[in-house]
Amino acid sequence: MSLTNPLNSLLEQSPFIVLDGALATELETRGCQITDSLWSANVLINQPDIIRQVHLDYFRAGAQCAITASYQASLAGFAQRGLDREEAQALIARSVTLAIDARTQFLSESPNSPRPLVAGSVGPYGAYLADGSEYRGDYSLSREAFIDFHRPRITQLLAAGADILACETQPSFAEIQALCELIETFPEASAWFSVTLKDAYHLSDGTPLTTVVNYLTAQPQVVALGINCIALTETTAALNHLHTLTSLPLVVYPNSGETYDAQSKTWHQGGAHCQQLTDYLPDWLAAGAKLIGGCCRTSPKDIQALASRQHALSSD
């Protein structure tokens, strides 16, 4: 199989790729309703132009990759809203075209900038359950059922023009294996996998990271792996462990310094002075991180700070 790695051109120019920050919580700050089972996918239905604007604002802040609003977009989830298969497929494709439209506008404003990537978000089955199980991995489906759940979304993301798949916030080793088997049926596709953790050495479902990484490293379409949607304070130990297990580029995009209560669906300040993404950047780079951004409760301001550090390092 001949596979072009979409990360290579950006990594040849910079010490790391700047990912975007939060989408759903940023939409919430702009007045969108995300506290339901569809989360940011709800905005695809009702206010898609705001999604495009958030992508554009991240590109303007220095993000080199936009992650689409498809994390919680699935045929099953949309069916619960009364949408048929064709309507659901169109909404998943829309998540990509919105990001592409934002990229086109950004490049018209900054024609000398490197072309940013659009990563098609593939959230876990646990996200569809909307009960916080993407942080526990305590659900079980057959391999075939996992594949049937994910196939329509991946089909639409790739057909609409996503440059890479972001299989993110993954808590279940069984689901990761099913996703890799599914991606093999799209031979030109590449993906990164980022997981949630029980601790620095175990996936949320308890599987040792050694087992997970050995499996993912053997998949030729997996071009990076790492962690996302975890607390800032948990990132460095996990990255250091991952760095001993693989030579693949590592991915890290944690939440802000706040903590999330999955039951009340609210965020709480982690202290009087929350730490920032840039506070951790030297340790992340030392641990092999090459794709760096933010997840929940981060903003274009956080990404601008990362981009400024990237430019300074590139100039040294």
Architecture overview:
It is a single chain. The chain is α/β, with parallel strands linked by helices and 316 residues long. The chain has one domain: TIM Barrel (Alpha-Beta Barrel). The chain is built from 13 helices and 12 strands. An 8-stranded parallel β-sheet has the order 1-12-9-8-5-4-3-2. A two-stranded antiparallel sheet has the order 6-7. Strands 10-11 form a two-stranded antiparallel sheet. Helix 6 crosses helix 8. The mean pLDDT is 93.
**Computed CA radius of gyration, to the nearest angstrom:** 18 Å
Overall geometric form: globular
Kindly report the average pLDDT value: 93
Tally of domains: 1
Q: Work out the oligomeric state of the chains in this entry.
A: single chain
The CATH superfamily title:
Homocysteine-binding-like domain
CATH top level class name = Alpha Beta
Number of helices: 13
* Series of secondary-structure elements, N-terminal to C-terminal: HEHHHEHHEHHEHEEEHEHEEEHEH
Ordered list of secondary-structure elements with their pairings:
Blueprint: H1 8-13, E1 17-18, H2 24-29, H3 41-46, H4 48-61, E2 65-67, H5 75-79, H6 85-109, E3 117-122, H7 125-129, H8 143-159, E4 164-170, H9 173-183, E5 191-195, E6 197-199, E7 202-203, H10 209-217, E8 222-228, H11 235-243, E9 250-253, E10 259-261, E11 266-268, H12 277-286, E12 289-292, H13 300-315
Parallel strand pairs: 1-12, 2-3, 3-4, 4-5, 5-8, 8-9, 9-12
Antiparallel strand pairs: 6-7, 10-11
